[in-house]
Amino acid sequence: MTLSARNDFFKGGIILSALSLGLVAVGAYFAFSAYPEASALAALRPRGIIQALAGVFIGPSAYVPFFTMLAAVTYSFISIILIKHFFEKTQSPEILFFGLFVISLSFEFVRLMIPLRTVFAFPAMYIISGSRVLIFARYFGLFSLFAASVYAAGLDAQKQQNTFFILVLAALIIAMHIPIDGIVWDSALVPWSGYGSMFAVVEAGILAVTVITFFISAYTRGSRAYVHIGLGALLAFAGRTMLINSDTWVTPLPGFLALVAGTWIIASRLRREYLWL
Known about the structure:
mainly alpha
């Protein structure tokens, strides 16, 4: 993929994340006051080890899902602008897929649908459709992070477009086939979806392989930068998971800081690595 084509992906991500911010602003205007009602109707707590530990001592707070959603979309918007700026003339096959991971967080605006439904009472089928979009984005982000590690290990950079379509197809298959209940949601305002435990194991496995692949790249390429990038990927994914699954005031800030720190480590190390070439 040429630099121009890759930068077009980044421009599209900037536009998408800007539109997402706009939708969050509009949705908040209509539905911000409905968050307490939507939270009171939540039947579950979010999944995740850290969230489960926090949930033992602290109950859910109604407005946390809004601010975590806003933080995720804002992170996506600012980060993809910075990535485009600093890598606009730098050929790095990994940065495209890390950029796609960043862009995937702009879809968190979909979580507005549950408080909006308490205001406008539209059919639950729209909740289900929106949930499939959210699931697609989250798995596409995970797969993109994995693809970045594979390119670091030496996959032919000329096949990036094929890889992109494979990632889209894989995430789409999961999103279209996972069972979703449009009238049951957790206190992070994410509708219930089936096979949660199974997919948690799959996510952990993919993340572990991603980090290990970056470590292997450090050995095969003789560059310690990829050790830091692997640790950055672990930090970014853990921060993303903590942020988007938060329903208390305890976990969002650590999650957001971990996400930002992981992003900085990955981007700064990749830029330093490729500036030497």
